[in-house]
Design goal:
The chain has 175 residues and is of the alpha/beta class. It has 6 helices and 8 strands; from the N terminus they run E-H-E-E-H-E-H-H-E-H-E-E-H-E.
């Protein structure tokens, strides 16, 4: 798939994830959101629809973006056989919002994605959540060059200043 993916699912609708979803929606993407921790507390959001579960999010998207404070828990859910099957041939972007996991964990996730033919990027924001979509917003990206090239236009929608750190998925987590 060489065209820009248009259907995006954002998992984790805290302040950070909601800003990503709204920015993508304003820029013409079809966006759906899911917040497994606050599913009954998330108010309907302008510009994107709310989903009920992870499987629905994966099925309805070309790209899944995770903005989840407990990334290890989210990765465990994504690596389940049902979710993995649904992600085959799609793209997965993991935004580090809390910096709570190790570089080794990010590398492990990158290896899993590669073995499952899932385009995978690890992304960190160089600014506050409010900067998403602004000209001065910077994103650090790592993962396969193929995934970066495919997802670069989508990432540029979120942060005009992109820095590709290479294929080492743990690079954004190392100081």
């Amino acid at each position: 798939m060489n065209t820009l993916p248009k259907r995006i699912a954002v998992i984790g609708l805290d302040h950070f994830g909601s800003n990503i979803a709204r920015t993508l929606s304003r820029n013409g993407f079809e966006v759906a959101g899911l917040d497994p921790l606050r599913s009954h507390q998330v108010a309907p959001c302008e510009g994107f629809k709310l989903l009920r579960n992870l499987e629905q999010a994966i099925d309805s998207s070309d790209v899944v973006i995770t903005c989840f404070p407990d990334q290890l828990l989210m990765n465990a859910r994504l690596c389940s056989p049902e979710a993995t099957f649904g992600l085959h041939g799609k793209a997965l972007i993991s935004f580090n919002t809390a910096q709570t996991r190790s570089a080794a964990s990010a590398r492990s996730m990158g290896e899993w994605a590669r073995s499952e033919q899932i385009d995978y990027l690890e992304v960190s924001l160089n600014s506050q959540a409010e900067a998403i979509g602004q000209l001065d917003c910077g994103l650090l990206c790592c993962g396969s060059l193929k995934a970066y090239q495919k997802l670069q236009p989508l990432c540029r929608t979120l942060g005009a200043m992109l820095t590709y750190l290479g294929s080492d998925c743990g690079a954004t987590l190392e100081g």
